[in-house]
Amino acid sequence: AAAQGTRWSMDPGWRFTLADPAGAEAPRFDDRAWRPLDLPHDWSIEGTPREDAPGGGRVGYFPGGIGWYRKAFRLPPGSRGREFRLEFDGVYMNSDVWINGVHLGRRPYGYIGFAYDITKHLVAGVNVVAVRVDNSRQPNSRWYTGSGIYRHVWLTIADPLHVGHWGVS
């Protein structure tokens, strides 16, 4: 049989704050006061346009800023011995991603998808993804960009023998 994989939507059940709290990457950080939401999400469009917005007319006078997203999840049954990849279809902009307090990486800019192998950082119980998004340096575009995790997020679960991320060449 061919090696098989499963792709799970991670869009439902996130928590969000438009702030930059210290320690929000830690698994035990208390995010209960944060707003629950499902992805995709754009916090700029939720704001009030202002003539003095740092991005000006280029971004429709909407606000930027720094926001955090967090999601707690458990691995599906039968996933022991498999490999896991967390895939982001789009985050605008300058994102840092953690899983269970481990910094996975920083993605500058925001018009490209990216993924992290999270296999060795997962635990048997509750796992916590934290994403810091920094769209505070304005202006940074010729048009409206939005802010946040504006596309889907996926958890790809694969057998140890599988085609690598983004296929073969």
Secondary structure topology:
Blueprint: E1 5-9, E2 14-17, E3 35-37, E4 65-74, E5 83-88, E6 95-99, E7 102-107, E8 114-117, E9 126-135, E10 153-158
Antiparallel strand pairs: 1-10, 2-3, 2-4, 4-9, 5-8, 5-10, 6-7, 6-9
Describe this structure in words.
There is one protein chain. With 169 residues, this protein is an all-beta fold. Helix content is 0%, strand content 35%. It contains no helices and ten strands. Strands 3-2-4-9-6-7 form a six-stranded antiparallel β-sheet, with no helix packed on it. A four-stranded antiparallel β-sheet has the order 1-10-5-8, with no helix packed on it. A hairpin with a 2-residue loop joins β6 (95-99) and β7. The mean pLDDT is 91.
Defining traits:
six-stranded antiparallel sheet, four-stranded antiparallel sheet, globular, 169 residues, mainly beta
Q: Would you kindly provide a brief summary of this structure?
A:
With 169 residues, the protein is mainly beta. It is built from no helices and 10 strands. It has strands at residues 5-9, 14-17, 35-37, 65-74, 83-88, 95-99, 102-107, 114-117, 126-135, 153-158.
